[in-house]
Amino acid sequence: MLSLSLPGLIGAAMGLGLGLLNYGVVIGFVEKRLRALDRSASAAEKADFERRIILMRRIVLVLDVVAFSAVGYLFGHTIAGGVG
Fold it and tell me: Are 19 and 64 in contact (CB under 8 A)?
């Protein structure tokens, strides 16, 4: 049976919050820079550029949520000394 510690889950929730905050900051910065570099000449190129931006946003969101939650869980579990 899978046993999850309460401090670890609290750490994961805090990590999730930090991950979402990080996502907002990183995406805002990166997307602004990418849009400044956009040299799309046609509607097809612009559509492809927008598709790639959406894909980048999704990938960064998943990586941030998974990584920050995992680190938060491990940090919470370690700080609490594995209690629970």
Answer: yes
